[in-house]
């Protein structure tokens, strides 16, 4: 029982008297202690002067003596006869039992002792008492059993306050050994109050073990400290204690009270502190604690912070500092101004919530050499912005893509001269932080991961957003196809004309700039090999040189265009020349090469072509990369790497297996190796970054596929990290020229630029191809993300979903002149066109989900019946909205047969993927140009639900991870895991959300594909099918812009739902109402919207946002909306920042009727 007062007795005088009386009457002390809930030790102290002997019969006594003489242990006899062991010992003290042990046993025990085994262990092994072993080995001294380091360690641990028994146990020594080594060390550092409390409470009858455990001291301390307090009186009674407290409160001097009641002055001070609500024991600080506190202050921490951490008064810590300065131990710190403090230590003092930014800021600022004054000013503003305005203050949360931050420019830059410069300085600083700390590496090139973003935008001098610096990350898939054809111009290397001449020419006079040509001898040339490309190059004043072309870097470029692998994975790939099985023309055969025979004893399968067993005697060919980034960190040899189940495609331009096999054959013939190369012999310029010897040894030796014969000294090593970049730059330049010659332009007539005109560097580096291919396959190819995860080597599905970027849908072709008549005209004109249109016209103006539109409506216009069609908000359903079979007729159009073709012979179709009413993936749906705004609204709605599901899935994945860690810890400690049901429920919810995420992502992909097809049709569409958006100008523009603001996204979703009631708002309406009510409260108004019904929240919330936008900027409602959202996101008052009278904003004109929202007397009133 732990108490603040260390001295107050836990037992009443009445309990003590009862215990003494019962023991004196003959009741056993154990029985008394149990019945009164006391420790036996306590009862023993109270009754130490009471001696009680039980009369034992002579017969029982003689029986005990006989058993002892026969060799029975005294403890066993005591338990057997019910007599205490002390009584048995008193009766048999004159009996000495000697056991005769053989000389062999004695000698064995002595040998064990000489070998260093402890005597206690020997006694246990031989079943002999420890005293007997000591007698046998008394002359054996093991002088050097422990070395000097072990002895010094024992001394040091004892000096640090550890109990000698604990030290002995940890170091494997006997307690006597530790006592001999550290006997001079007396750990008497405990406070006098603790020592006095231990002694007095034990004297008063409490259990020694219980008191020692409560005070966190060793029970042995009692016997060392007991003599120190012989002059201290017993604890007074409770009545006396109360009397003492009355005297203290009456102002009597403590010294007089102590003298009167014969109590120590220290005890009185403790009672007084307890009475005042303070700690019973006054904290005593060691010199080490004081010094540590002083040095923390010298390092820049505030005195108040240090005092709070160490548990001392501020005045006390300030005294320590003054004493340290006066004694010369430390020098009083000089406070630097912020302008002189290049370590930015002021951040932790003045803006502690932003302290995690200090290291990032200091590192970035140290590298800057120009304009440091303006950069320092900008950084001060940014730190204050994070501290005062941001709810997510840590760098990782602030830069997270899902975080909605206030507008830094609006809050700190818009009202000052050259505010755009301050904004751009912080933009560049955040870009540096992202690249250094939140980026993904591909062969030394860093790209910011899709989980994070720079929340700022570059600004021009007129404070407008400067979009000229935007980076295009995703190369269009149509361009990827064209680039493949540019490289692989034919089935053999001799057909690769562009690649052969990209870095040089067939005949060059002067300096050779073609790095992919290397000198050879005539014997190395095989004129009959279509993959052997050679030339005779003329030189000035020198004889011609015979050269061969190396296709290595170009095959690497082509493979990057075909497979979503990292550049480093491809560069370090093994050719498989020493594998047990050899890949030939799509099959595997035993490898009989000399290189394979050189390593006959061990199964080896490290090549890029892997023979994968799928079932008994059935194998398939897959790609294998012998590295896989961070997944390799805890693995070695063949356990490293990643399998990529890439298909073998028919076209040689698409099939990586075809060209990788050709390159392996070319290497074997023209650049052979005779052994595997250890990774320890690879220089950093040829590896995937610098590696320690231990790291390099963890990789299996390799026969590298992309080795470079053009560098003779390193012909066996993989291609360097920068070689691909040069070849890729030439390829992109040539492709840009090709597009210009073909007069391919943007829809607005501008030139398509693949290279930056300023520095001629491509906007699409090869390291971004991985993102391009993943995006193309998931979005355009409708590849399920969970399968894509396995191909690209991601460990989590969520990352793959974030990695996939559909990108900005270019909606600038949409016209902003929205009118209601065009919306109403849409359906009638589309039906008329579909009913009467000819095949060519229908194909040019309507997009069908079906692979062949003739499978859903008749090619003959006279056979089409629009009566059976149903109008959707974003298209037309040719199945009339039917969701199931009627009268068992499976041929009747409906959701049950709106999926893929499953039987060509019977023309049988499967159900719609994702279930009934999933129209975006149903073949019975068609979409006209008039439906584009509604379809965009559908995509935005689906993206909102997808994002919500992702957040839930991520949260559940963290819960699962924590619970699995807890379960593993329980398994290791052999304790029951109590949250099995919670883990099972979390896994079930996680799986459900992952299924939903998969369906939603495929739905988004399907609808985005339709949007792209509609935009492609828009240029040549008839006038009556011109693109027209629905709703007012504010609604039209808000759905066409990407946004990082949650409120701006919700505003678009809610507006769409009002225009297109078929859309499911989910929790969007409720969430927007929360944000709007919070905005009203920040402006001094009571909440309104959450007390409405959901329909009222939707309608009046939309009208309220539109009215706020109009009042903010009557000329441009979209700009007004962004301003309003920025203020609400920052948590500021709408009235104060925008100067809006909310009374006028709450006068909402909608549909020709006046709606007034008022709140007074704590009640809300609505009238229309």
From TrEMBL:
Pfam families: Integrase_2
GO-annotated biological processes: DNA integration; DNA recombination
Signal peptide feature range: none
Name by which UniProt lists this protein: Uncharacterized protein
InterPro entries, alphabetized: Homeodomain-like_sf, Integrase-like_cat_sf, Putative_integrase, WH-like_DNA-bd_sf
Coiled coil regions, renumbered to chain: none
GO molecular function terms listed in the Swiss-Prot or TrEMBL record: DNA binding
